[in-house]
Amino acid sequence: MTYMFSSVRLRLAAGAIAGLVVVLVLSWAGLVALFERHVERRIGSELDLHLAQLASATQVSASGQLALEPAPSDPRFGKVRGGLYWQIEDEASGSMLRSRSLWDLRLAAGAGLPASGVVAVDDRPGPRDTSLRVHERRLLLPDGTGERVVRFSVAMDRREIDGLTADFSGDLVLALVGLGVVLAGASLLQIALGTAPLAGIGRQVAAVRGGTLRRLPSAAASEVMPLVQEVNALLDGADAQIERARARAADLAHGLKTPLAALKADAARIADQGAPEIAQGIEVAVDAMSRQVERELARTRVRHGGRGSETVLRPAVERIVAVIRRTPACDLVNVVVDIPETMCVAIDEPDLVEVMGNLIENGVRHASSHVRVGVDPAGSGLARVCVDDDGDGLSPAERDVVLGRGVRLDSQPGGAGLGLAIVADILDAYGLALTLSTSPQGGLAASFVVRARM
């Protein structure tokens, strides 16, 4: 439940639907109450009209008897227990006239009789355990010698009121359910439209992380613009930190290489002075320090990096090949670049240059005559970048150890045995892996799979 409501959209939807249900229930109860009041007023007006007709048609004869002429014409008065009743009672003599619908019953007296001319309204028990809405009025009628107090009562079965109210309530439920469905749909649509910019920002952040975007584009909604601006400012700050880290790494490299070179020169002089064993120990220590410094500097260049950008692959590779072709190692080796012109890979350009430079240089150093730098498809949105040569290659056991710290399986000069290890470290910072295998030319194939697009 907690996980489900961690979504802002689900929270808004749940709140909107809950609020809508509460409003519709309250509306239903309020409208039913208003309708019941309206029906009661309408029936009350009808009962008051019947009271007026009874009062105008009732007379007291010279003998003191009540007489009604003409009788009310509503057919419900003539049907036994028809639901509509009238009763006229002389309070002095107790004589009474009543509708046929009452048959042998009489309307119970109210708790308090109203003053003359005032209509009293209340509910009283009726035939067959029914409840009656009663309108009652007291009037003074002349009897030839004076006046008499006569009570007029008209009643209607409340089941008619309750039935009308129940019918209205049922129809209202259907109408409100339909209205609720429409309003719920409108609320969900409003929530979807309102939260769309947030979902868009999530996709854009993923694109920045994946390297297809450098910065978040300006948002259409002004409410999320502060978030976009803060994220872009954070990315700017991170890039600035990366550049400072790389600059410090370069400064550290220059600062350490000179003293290490001086130590190596001192070791050579010590050897010339007749202490070759001491000189060899110093050279071994200096070489170990140099390898460790080189690898840690390479790690520093990418440890704070790996933050989403794309690099066009072929121009970067061609620049590296152009430099390597000027080296003596490339005099007898032909380097072929087989990469589409517009292919982009999700690696920052300095890191890509470091990776490809080490792989190509390693291939040229060990190739007999041919090195191929190519790209092969590796699935949807992925490509395998491969550098393979026609050299002696490596056995499976050698491939397992060659990525270790400073491991060298060759005796050629000009390297520290760190190239493949540095490549593996850089690729690991991007969540990628370096794979070593046998190339189609019989030598070593060094490859990695990266997200790419044309």
Structural class: alpha+beta
Helix-strand pattern = HEEEEEEEHHHEHEEHEEHHEE
What general outline do the C-alpha atoms trace?
A: rod-shaped
Q: N- to C-terminal separation?
A: 43 Å
How big a fraction of the residues is strand? Answer: 15-25%
Spatial extent as radius of gyration: 50 Å
Please give the number of β-strands.
14
Mean pLDDT: 81
- The helical percent reads 40-55%
The low-confidence parts are 405-417
Largest sheet: 7 strands, mixed
What does this structure look like?
Helices cover 50% and strands 19% of the residues. The protein has eight helices and 14 strands. The strands form three sheets. Strands 8, 9, 10, 11, 12, 13 and 14 form a seven-stranded mixed β-sheet that branches. A five-stranded antiparallel β-sheet has the order 4-3-7-6-5. A hairpin with a 4-residue loop joins strand 6 and strand 7. Helix 1 (8-57) packs antiparallel against helix 2, helix 3 (225-272) packs antiparallel against helix 4 and helix 4 (276-303) packs parallel to helix 8 (419-429). The longest helix is centred in the middle third of the chain and has 53 residues, at 158-210.
Short description:
By secondary structure, the chain is an alpha+beta fold. It has helices at residues 8-57, 158-210, 225-272, 276-303, 313-324, 349-366, 396-401, 419-429; strands spanning 58-60, 66-68, 84-90, 96-98, 119-126, 130-142, 147-157, 311-312, 334-338, 344-345, 370-377, 382-389, 435-438, 444-453.
